[in-house]
Design brief:
Chain A: Homodimer. The complex is a heterodimer of chains A (about 240) and B (about 190). Chain A is built from 6 helices and 9 strands, in the order αββααβαββββαβαβ. Chain A is α/β, with parallel strands linked by helices. In chain A, strands 4-3-7-8-9 form a 5-stranded parallel β-sheet, sandwiched between helices. A two-stranded antiparallel ribbon of chain A has the order 1-2. The longest helix of chain A has 15 residues. With about 190 residues, chain B is α/β, with parallel strands linked by helices. Chain B has a single domain, classed as Rossmann fold.
């Protein structure tokens, strides 16, 4: 449990501070959370993986599914450390063998996620990893793919959450864990982003509310934490 | 067939790694026997052996950067980087990296493509290892080498899980080093 970690806060603050914000990418108004700078810091990258491994080791997880492409960076090291297999969840026409597909909606239009037939077996316990959860659409598609073949998705694990985009709600009663929570300011409009509209699903009563939060938002490199800035990004 | 590298010849781990790779005929187009490493990633022991062999080779070579080619290079590179204490740098298709980038074009069978790297990810004096799952013509890897050298890094070696000896020769004649664990499987090798 995150709150039991004696060094939890220290590692998380360092992880958060290693993430770079790129304004107006991929379009005006979006503050992109760039984890490539975290990957340039071997200590921070090691700590990120360690936090996930500490959480999932010994939990009988046999599958780590990673979402293309940044989920491919975090998922395999975790899979190797906990003794699980790694399953890539990919964009269409990338996987060479027989696949199952799940369509999901984007802000404008739709996309498709694919998984190899036979990669996982019914009854396996899985976690799904990505660098960031925004609206939760991508993670939701991954959950559906795994559940369609009888896998139990134990948790979704991300480095960064953008809580104001309410991705957590979209996961329903499936738990979400993330090492670094970037707190938006309640009520702040995120310029350029359509308000998130849900079909009305709420988190179930059994949902885990374990959150690991850094204490300050990741600010632009050029300035100190600007409490007034809106935070937002699209996870790809 | 297994790469007969010093110290690895007859290494039973190479057999396990090779047998974990699936061949998909006629993907992405007729005549191509695609070497599918996703089945290797499903075999925890074989995947671990793969990383261990690379780590054993590179841990004492003073490598400060592991650069992985999108997207399958991302599946192998970070674990190696973490084990040897190097930074991991993703080399990506155009317009994926959010910050300022440098770009290198390379030739495909039909047309061209390009590879990008973040400015500032790599510094002069960095010693780099480039990782991808498989080397075919070497076009992508040579583009990757150029990106790193343009940034002042020294590319110590390119490493892949799968390759062909003839490509190793091509690298050598260009003054570059290529290392791989196994050669491509044929369909009849698979049960």
């Amino acid at each position: 449990m995150a709150s039991d970690l004696p060094q939890g806060d220290d590692r998380i603050a360092k992880i958060a501070s290693s993430i770079r914000v790129i304004p107006n990418f991929p379009k005006p108004g979006v503050m992109f959370q760039d984890i490539t700078t975290l990957l340039l810091d071997p200590r921070a990258f090691r700590d990120t993986i360690d936090l996930f491994v500490e959480r999932y080791k010994g939990q009988d997880i046999s599958v780590v599914a990673g979402i293309e492409a940044r989920g491919f960076i975090f998922g395999p090291p975790v899979a190797l450390a906990i003794g699980a297999k790694f399953v890539p969840m990919r964009k269409p026409n990338k996987l060479p063998g027989e696949v199952i597909s799940e369509e999901y909606t984007l802000e404008y239009g739709a996309d498709v996620m694919e998984m190899h037939v036979g990669a996982v077996q019914a009854g396996e316990r899985a976690i799904i990893m990505d660098d960031l959860i925004a609206t939760g659409g991508t993670l939701c598609a991954a959950i559906k793919l795994l559940e369609r073949v009888g896998v139990h998705v134990v948790e979704c694990a991300c480095v960064i959450e953008l809580p104001e985009l309410k991705g957590r709600d979209r996961l329903g009663d499936r738990p979400l864990d993330r090492t670094s929570c970037l707190e938006g300011i309640p009520g702040t409009a995120i310029e350029g982003f359509e308000p998130y509209v849900d079909g009305g699903r709420k988190r179930g009563p059994g949902a885990i509310d374990e959150v690991w939060c850094s204490t300050s938002p990741v600010s632009l490199e050029s300035g100190q934490g600007d409490q007034g800035s809106a935070l937002g990004a699209f996870g790809f | 067939m297994f790469a007969a590298e010093n110290g690895l010849k007859g290494d039973p781990r190479l057999k396990a790694i090779s047998e974990a790779i699936r061949v998909i005929p006629n993907f992405p187009k007729p005549g191509i026997m695609f070497q599918d490493i996703t089945t290797l990633l499903l075999d925890h022991n074989a995947f671990k052996h793969t990383i261990d062999i690379f780590v054993d080779r590179y841990r004492d070579m003073d490598i400060s950067v592991v650069a992985g080619v999108e997207a399958r290079g991302f599946m192998f590179g970070p674990s190696i980087a973490l084990a040897i204490g190097a930074k991991f740098v993703p080399l990506r298709k155009p317009r994926k990296l959010p910050g300022e980038v440098i770009s290198e074009s390379y030739v495909l069978e039909y047309g061209t493509d390009s590879l990008e790297m973040h400015v500032g990810a790599v510094r002069p004096g960095d010693r780099a290892l480039i990782i991808d799952d498989l080397v075919a013509t070497g076009g992508t890897l040579f583009a990757a080498i150029n990106l790193l050298e343009r940034s002042g890094a020294e590319v110590t070696e390119c490493a892949c899980v799968i390759g062909l000896p003839i490509v190793k020769e091509r690298f050598r004649s260009n003054g570059k080093r290529l290392y791989f664990l196994v050669e491509p499987r044929q369909l009849e090798d698979c049960c």
